[in-house]
Amino acid sequence: MLSNIRSEKIEYSDPRFHGIGTVIEVEPVKTSQFWQGRIKFRGSQWKAKTLSNANLQINDLCLVVGRTSDVTLIIKPYQD
Prior knowledge:
This protein is mainly β. Helix content is 0%, strand content 51%. Strands 3-4-5-7-6 form a 5-stranded mixed barrel.
């Protein structure tokens, strides 16, 4: 399933981009109101961002729910 949010195509149905990751870097807020940074996911480091307000810090767990066309992972905070 593709979604087009803010003129950006987002893929949610690819099972390779679903799972739990760990925040390794938090980018300072620039123009986006949403969280941006890097996560470790399945042994690799990835650019990542949320599509809603989130307060993620280094070493927090996150849930990968999709990816953009430029392979930025879409995440949300992980909750047990």
